[in-house]
From TrEMBL:
InterPro entries: GPAT/DAPAT (IPR052744), Plipid/glycerol_acylTrfase (IPR002123). GO terms for molecular function: glycerol-3-phosphate O-acyltransferase activity; glycerone-phosphate O-acyltransferase activity. GO terms for biological process: phospholipid biosynthetic process. Residues 17-91 form the Phospholipid/glycerol acyltransferase domain. It comes from the Eukaryota. Pfam families: Acyltransferase. This is Phospholipid/glycerol acyltransferase domain-containing protein. PANTHER family: GLYCEROL-3-PHOSPHATE O-ACYLTRANSFERASE 1.
Length: 125
């Protein structure tokens, strides 16, 4: 699968892209962190693979994406490292969170009732 992507899809879809400064990337040796400025995981990944085909590349991928039927196995085949993002773990709960300030100026957070999870799971104030 990886061979197919590197040698066919990359050549077809990324053949007209030029890369500036690619000669500064060491072909092997120390670790290099590549950061893309495009907000699309497929375009970014394809660009990096096409630009740096001589190095073994591992991507940091949202764990949520790794759990998807097609994307997950493909990302795993590339050695992607899953990372849980806070926005993927958040969901609506029932209950009330209030804040107040005590006489020393410290903020007091009160969680009343409901079914909140995460950091307040199992905590009673």
């Amino acid at each position: 699968m990886r061979f197919l992507i590197k040698n066919f899809i990359i050549k077809v879809f990324y053949s007209r892209i030029s890369y500036v400064g690619r000669h500064h990337i060491p072909p092997k040796g120390e670790a290099v962190i590549f950061v893309s400025n495009h907000p699309n995981q497929f375009v970014d990944g394809g660009n990096i693979i096409a630009a740096v085909h001589s190095r073994k590349i591992r991507f940091i991928t949202a764990a949520k994406s790794m759990r998807r039927p097609v994307i997950g196995p493909l990302a795993k085949s590339f050695g992607a490292v899953p990372v849980e993002r806070s926005q993927d773990l958040a969901y609506e709960g029932n209950g009330t969170i209030t804040t107040s300030t005590d006489s020393d100026g410290k903020t007091i957070v009160k969680v009343a009732g409901g079914s909140f999870d995460g950091l307040v799971k199992g905590t009673k104030l």
